[in-house]
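This section describes the prediction task in plain terms. A model, or a person checking by hand, is given the sequence of a single protein chain and must write out its three-dimensional structure as a string of tokens. No templates, partner chains or ligands are provided. The sample shown here is typical of the held-out split.
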Amino acid sequence: MEKQSSGAAEKPAPAILSVRTALVACFLTLLACCVARPLRDPDLWFHIVAGRWILAHGAVPTQDYWNMFGAGLPWRAYSWLAEVSFAAVERGFGLRGLILFETCAVALFLLSVARCFVSLSRSYLIGIALTLLAALGCFWHLVLRPQALTWILYPVVILLCDQIRTRGFSWGLGAQLAATMCLWANIHVSSVIPLATIALLVERKGLRTLGAALACAFAATLFTPYFGAEWLSAIKYAGHPATFSIITELRPATITEPWSLPLLLSSSLLLVLYYRDSRVLSLRVLLGQLALVLGAFAVMRFIPFAVILTCALLARGLGERPVPLPAALARLNSRLVKRVVAVGLLLSFVPLLALGRGSLKRAFERGTDSNTVARSAVDFIESRSLPQPLLNSFEDGNYLIYRYADRNGEPRYRVPIDGRTEVNTKEAWTEFRAAYLGEERWQDFIDLVKPQTIMWPTGSPFVRILTSSGQWCLVYQEGPVTGTTVLVRRSVWEARKNQLDALNCFE
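The expected answer:
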């Protein structure tokens, strides 16, 4: 029995270049086009500004320039490589270029995951099925942001870990691991995730092999413009999800939400596989996977990493300990099945091409998602030359930085709060939170910023408080429930009431 299992484990993986591989690659690329959407990540806009600043100055910033209360305080652009890429694409090709960049990133993510899962499972069918499951788990988080780019690298790390686990450490594998980790460290500050994955997955070969793999990986994270000082930022803000729990991506997830279901399904399948044959995983790996799943439910931004790792462990388990098929399925001609799948992929190309073209066309026409990017509200503020200072919410801070920055990333105005949780001062965040939730101290944020104009999400109770106070006049609103509301001080409206229509102020 052991001999058969060993033989199955040594079965060569599918060839990297084949007709089947080309069909799968085309299918996944067309699938990425089908999910193309207008730009909707609020953080993207600051990343573009930071990239502009780096390109203009030929260096990375060491302090903040864009936040009203954080300007001059130490700050590191730990996503500098992604930010420079975003800024270069936006400068050369505009919003359409960014939409294409995001679509290409999604395609690379799908291809990277598929390569990993097919290689681990030694089956195209299993690998692609798990790829679609992992893609579904990441779909709601797939936006153009530095962390999403690391999802392309994560399957590469997992596959290298498996090769080190089965073959042992070599300088060739170490160099590939170091190059991947160096790229990761310059894209995002989350290098601790692949390091923890290496510690979890590199087994069987002893502590010496594990130590060599971790040493190569960690040393590579020090090759950044800050010489690895990003680790200090990661350590300093390690507990910030608890502080900023009102931010959607930092709040806990629940099992009833759609983005949680693929993770629950893949984890359940992994537990069933472990129950059927405990040799597919060591108990240490299983406990580590469960710890990551619990962490993902505690902070939902980690769900993509958890679902990718879980599906990878499923693929590895099915590749090393294949589950016996029912007799009816076993009698099927495997060549026939492969041909049917290949024909199915070919037939899907025409509808996928039409859907992908339509999705890209709609994304190009809209440019930005009005539900997450307050483009129309800022256009109104700019067209009416509403006075500064401007009080804004956390969600809109990064887009305002983008609109108020020049081509070199230099700000015309600073914002009181923005999407960088490591920059906002404790006082500003505390006062903003009270205003956002409509608490008794809502006036404190206004007293801190002393604004003439307020731009705020319509659904927040803060808007209702302001409109009923008699001190603020509502001059713009995208919708009665969603969208963005713009208000000005009553004295501003009285001086310009011939130019500004107010919904709640009268003579």
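For orientation: Residues 243 and 426 are 10 Å apart (CA to CA).
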